């Protein structure tokens, strides 16, 4: 449930701190005092849309914080998304500055508006004052029925099956329409793939042939250079390097026996002699493997030419030819699979049957839920001065669609002896408001949401009906927290907790404030709601009677 609500610099609110209890709570006040602003502020903390216009004039930012106690569903969501706090409290905060920038927080951790909305749906269910208007739309009626019956997952499965079926159907239709173009494209790809498969380029081959060409084309130069180095080191007729260094080392070794101070010099020269000897071995090995091969050079030059020609033809670099072959082959396979109309039609029929299975399952569930909702609303109508009235949920067969196989339509008969007709055609404003309220109360009892908010959903009713409405909301408050913005004294008198919203002018600006009411202040507010600006002893007496009831 909602424990506290803190609002700062929101629209005409300077600063408001509310401590809320369980049960049935009402907010009352004169028109324009800002009663619905409280609901708007809470909706913002729950991830609703907001912009710079919500910031109080002259303020830097609007700041709304709502503290809830966590139920099991909300606690599980917090744990899954790593927002869990140290206790069962949930702290939602939303800040919007006068430039329109928004920040959200869950238990002090930065959160997105989407995360606030996801968590908010587990905490609060808001029924707005214009909810009855949406009841006139078929889509809204279907969504309400699915929500009441818990069929949202089934509806999403139907939408997903529809999407898959229609996507394949469109693909099949395009192929049938463009069969000639598909054939030409397939022939073009077959020729290109055939050309490249004949060439058979290998990954890394371009680098290999370039390296081999360089080596073969410079073979004579390489042989001459290597032989010259070998001769200078070990094969020269007059004093080669290796022989001179060996002779020098022998002389120094004898001298080092006389004076050990020469040993460091010897230790430096001896590794040099060993390295020269290693160079001789390596050069001999290199010369043994290197030879002039004009035929192989011609072969390599020919392969390079083939790769060059193919690269120009396919507008890629030579080293990209293997990848190009893979890409074109994949396109050809995809086109061959896609152009198999028989296989496509078989797959399309499979997806159609899958859609029909989940759609028919949803239709059965909707039919059952529609009967239950119709009976419940019909019962509620009897208490709301619509004796003999009836509410039905019709499922009109239609063409298969993303939402299922039927159109949901709410039908109502306002009096006994009349046939139910579409809600939009027969319900007056007052009847529509009462039916909307009945549906709101009934659908709310079907959910586990701990806090329910009714924002002037009782507009258009009065008298004894208003008293019934108040009792309905009070009864609903026995199981969960119910907050209601109302202008009806019969509803306000039924509340367990009562807040009065008022506005004042200061320094040329308008401010909204709120305070909890206890007797006798509550009697005065009920009397004001009954009699207007002039409160008489009679209206006070009537107010006391309402509260006593």
Furnish the topology, listing elements before pairings.
Blueprint: E1 2-10, E2 13-19, E3 24-28, H1 35-45, E4 61-69, H2 72-80, E5 89-97, E6 102-106, E7 109-111, H3 113-123, E8 124-127, H4 131-134, H5 138-149, H6 152-177, H7 179-199, H8 205-217, H9 219-235, H10 241-258, H11 263-289, H12 294-313, H13 321-338, H14 341-383, E9 390-401, E10 404-413, E11 421-422, H15 423-426, H16 429-445, E12 451-455, H17 463-476, E13 481-485, H18 489-492, E14 497-506, E15 509-516, H19 521-531, H20 537-548
Parallel strand pairs: 3-13, 3-14, 8-12, 12-13
Antiparallel strand pairs: 1-2, 1-4, 4-5, 5-6, 6-7, 9-10, 10-11, 14-15
Helix pairs in contact: 5-14, 6-14, 7-13, 8-12, 9-11, 10-11, 14-16, 19-20
Oligomer: single chain
Count of DSSP H/I helices: 20
**Shape field:** elongated
Average pLDDT level: 85
Radius of gyration: 43 Å
- What is the number of strand segments? 15
Secondary structure category? alpha/beta
The largest β sheet comes out as: 6 strands, antiparallel
Arrangement of strands in the largest sheet: 2-1-4-5-6-7
Distance between the termini: 27 Å
Q: Helical proportion? A: 55-70%
Low-confidence stretches: none
Strand content: 15-25%
Give an account of the 3D structure.
- The chain is an alpha/beta fold.
- It contains 20 helices and 15 strands.
- The strands form three sheets. The chain has a six-stranded antiparallel sheet, covered by helices on one side.
- Helix 17 links the parallel strand 12 and strand 13.
- Helix 6 packs antiparallel against helix 14, helix 8 packs antiparallel against helix 12 and helix 19 crosses helix 20.
- It is elongated, with a radius of gyration of 43 Å.
- The relative contact order is 0.13.
